[in-house]
Amino acid sequence: MSLPPMPRGAVTDDIERRVIGADFGADGYTTLAQADDLAAHLDLRPGRRLLDLGSGRGWPGLYLAARTGCAVVLADLPGDGLGIAALRAVREGLDTRCAVIAATGQHLPFAAETFDAVGHADVMC
Ligand SMILES: C[S@@+](CC[C@H](N)C(=O)[O-])C[C@H]1O[C@@H](n2cnc3c(N)ncnc32)[C@H](O)[C@@H]1O
């Protein structure tokens, strides 16, 4: 089965790489260096479970999963962003460690202590 192309543009990808250092379709100001700091502060590694709240198109949650080997759940409301993130997870072979869910921070369908770490980059809940 062939996957559809990522719905991105060369110009926007280039701008994003120059500004934050990555091309995830970010909708905020978290840089690659800051995402790496986050990985260290949250002690992300294989076996750890991260909730990325307000995940948008998967920045930085997908990057953190790829970089550290942790599992990640991406939670947000807009379906288009979640769809793009899910597609990227499949394309990058992260889909066994990544799930997307349409949910708000106010109503999360998870039991207490489901996650080892929670991140929310450029999100004001
Ligand atoms: C500025 S964007 C940042 C997206 C992504 N984290 C990034 O850095 O590219 C803020 C995101 O937070 C989401 N958001 C805002 N309030 C939220 C809430 N209460 N629960 C879940 N997501 C929320 C929005 O839908 C939006 O996708």
How many distinct beta strands?
4
The secondary-structure element order is: HHEHEHEE
What's the end-to-end separation, in Å?
A: 38 Å
CATH superfamily: Vaccinia Virus protein VP39
CATH architecture: 3-Layer(aba) Sandwich
Strand content range = 15-25%
* Distinct small molecules bound, one entry per kind: S-adenosylmethionine
Question: What does the model show?
Answer:
The chain has helices at residues 10-19, 32-41, 61-68, 79-91; strands spanning 49-53, 71-76, 98-102, 117-119. By secondary structure, it is α/β, with parallel strands linked by helices. The protein has one domain: Vaccinia Virus protein VP39 (Rossmann fold, 3-Layer(aba) Sandwich), CATH 3.40.50. α3 (61-68) links the parallel β1 and β2 (71-76). The chain is globular. The model has no long low-confidence stretch (mean pLDDT 93). Bound molecules: S-adenosylmethionine. S-adenosylmethionine (SAM) binds at residues 26-28, 30, 53-56, 59, 75-78, 81, 104-106, 121-123, 125. It is an enzyme of class 2 (transferase). Pfam families: Methyltransf_25. This is SAM-dependent methyltransferase. One of its GO terms (molecular function) is methyltransferase activity.
